[in-house]
Amino acid sequence: MEDDGEHLSCKTIHDLPEEILEFILMKVSPYKDLKSASLVCTSWHKLVQVVLRKLHQTYLQSVFTSKIEWSSIQPEAGSHITERYSHSCCYFDKSLYVFGGCTATNTTLNDLWRFDLATREWIRPLAMGTYPYPKACASLVVYKDNLVLFGGWSHPTPFPLHQAARFFSELHIYKPSTNRWSHVTTLSHQSPQPIAGHSASIIGDYMVIFGGSQIPGIRTNEVWLFDFNEQAWRMPRIGYRRPAPRYGQTQVTIDDSHILIVGGCGGGTPNQVYNDCWLLTVGEDEWTWDLIIVENPQWAAPQLWCNSACKVSDMIVTLSKAAKPLPRTVPVSPRAYKPRGKIWVPPREDEIEQPANPANQSQALGSPDTFPTNQSDETSDSGNVSDQSEASNMSPDSANSQSDSSEPEVGTSNPRPGLPSVRPNAMKNRQKQLEALLKYEKRFRHTDMVGPSDAEEEPPRLSQNLHNIRQQKSPTVTNLASLMTLHVLDISRVLECKVVSWQKLNFENMTGAPTGTIFYSLVEGQNEILMFGGIEKDIHALQRGQGIQSHTVNNALYIISPIQHLL
Q1: Distances (CA, A) of 273 to 32, 279, 458, 539
Q2: Under a CB-based contact definition with an 8 Å cutoff, are residues 309 and 318 in contact?
Q3: Per residue in 420-469, pLDDT tens?
Q4: Which of 8, 98, 173, 365 is the 20 to 30 A CA-CA neighbour of 525?
Q5: What is the pLDDT of residue 531?
Q6: Helix pair 462-471, 426-447: axis angle to 10 deg
Q7: pTM above 0.90, yes or no
Q8: Domain 16-65 falls under CATH 1.20.1280.50
Q9: Residue ranges of the domains in the chain?
């Protein structure tokens, strides 16, 4: 026994089976600890490489199928990053960098923040050098070990009065290793006009910018190229065919010769929203645009100009509320059932305290098909979807009866509009229908194994049953419609077939998702997607000119990652 005990005491972590050690390493942070584990020994280094490949494959599959989970990080009390929207954001060296943006009072900022993804802490680098002006809607991209900031605009100052918004054409470079800003001054004969709301991406040693707004109401579809080696701007020669002028679009680099543009806002009519897709091919003498076929547009993300997007392998992902109503497969009320025939059975006088609205009772006792599922964003946000769609859920007979008479109808299955039933056995038939309805309910309760059996329980009151059906806490359409959903655009066939495809939405994993937010930032980390800031407001209300309240702008950081049991 002593020998066995001594033998067991000599066991170390190196003696664990590879399967167990691999399971442990799957739970380690990929930003710091996993890299340190690869330095322990040769066998651990090989095992860490296997773990990294499995984590990445699981992550890509989770994003493609939207089998994800949400987690949020709120800033600590005290000194923390200010709430903002329309800011600039990028990922570099295991950190999330955020610059500028607008506050709830429409004040533009020029502060720089870094979120360390290894320690999950916000840090404000007090950089040296030439700081950029306070601005929003600027582009921030990574070139080698530098962050490149270009363009942007700022709200007019209150004093002096009647000042216009200011647009910028400045180009600043921030070097994290030296913590210094530098303003790049070029001697180019031509350069882009002051611009904001444009898109930018890196291809080789060039930064390519497209579109944007030069002054309020004026959009552009120009393409500009900044050469980092020559420190100069130039406009490439482009064919006649090109996208419509726009701003707020998403731009990603496919490879060293192709750039993809998705969405945007602008055009001939004010605030025209685009959902098209264009491919820019880099040639030696001339660059060309190609219009890409978009499949499954019914699953596309709405308002692509105010919803940020990022590239994840062969996908472009964005977050938004569903453009169309949620499908009927979304659970509405597990206790609702479908009776035979669309009839309204009024309760007896001794079972109600006040006269009930027949339309409301018909809706409460109706089938799941009669519950409202096809509502717009405006009605979903109001929280009164059931009330607003009440008239559409009623049968034509009941609608006519309400229009002809203000009194509740007391007819049976086929009543005459506006007149009570003249059948001599109407009251007796209603009593039988009520008893049959109670039997159906007890059978349903027994099937769901809720409450006692039919022989043990006392027949419940109909009014109480109606109250229970209305008060059930389930993931209703109204609740889900206000949450952000992951939209995935498959771009794996864009080069060969000139086709992209929106994937079907998945509403199964929405626990912890934020409510409808616009003008946020979205970037990809290591096997996770990071969403920061924005305005928790319906874009339709914003376009109608309604003001932005201070509490709707946030500084929360949401992390989208694969579901834990899939790892």
Answers
A1: 42, 18, 58, 12
A2: yes
A3: 444 455 566 667 777 777 776 666 555 444 444 444 444 444 444 444 44
A4: 173
A5: 97
A6: 50
A7: no
A8: yes
A9: 16-65, 70-321+483-566, 349-405+426-478
Q: Is 414 exposed, middle or buried (0-12, 13-18, 19+ CB in 10 A)?
A: exposed
3-state secondary structure 36-80: HHCCCCHHHHHHHHHHHHHHHHHHHHHHHHCCEEEEEECCCCCCC
Which tokens hold the place of 452?
Answer: 């006692």
Cβ within 8 Å of residue 139, ≥6 positions away: 88, 148, 149, 150, 151, 198, 199, 200, 209
For 371, list phi and psi in degrees, rounded to 5.
-75, 145
For CA atoms 292, 295, 300, 302, the dihedral sign is positive
* CA proximity to 120, closest of 60, 71, 158: 71
The 10 Å Cβ neighbour count of residue 533 is 26
Q: What is the pLDDT of residue 23?
A: 84
Q: What is the DSSP string of 450-482?
A: -SS-TTTSPPPPHHHHHHHHHH-----HHHHHT
Residues 6+ apart with CB under 8 A from 245: 211, 219, 220, 221, 266, 267
Helices then strands, counting H and E runs in the chain, come out as 13, 31
CATH number for the segment(s) 70-321+483-566: 2.120.10.80
Using alpha carbons only, how large is the chain's radius of gyration in Å? 30
Higher local confidence (pLDDT), 464 or 382: 464
Is residue 190 pLDDT above 50, yes or no? Answer: yes
First-to-final CA distance of the chain: 39
Count of C-beta atoms within a 10 Å radius of residue 64: 17
Among 77-81, 144-148, 240-244, 468-472, where is mean pLDDT lowest?
468-472
pLDDT at 381 over 60: no
Q: What share of the chain is helix, strand, coil (3-state, %, to 5)?
A: 25, 30, 50
* Euclidean distance between CA atoms 372 and 397, whole angstroms: 19
In DSSP notation, 402-460 reads HHH-SSPP---SSPPTTS----TTHHHHHHHHHHHHHHHHHHHHHHTT-SS-TTTSPPP
d(CA 152, CA 150): 7
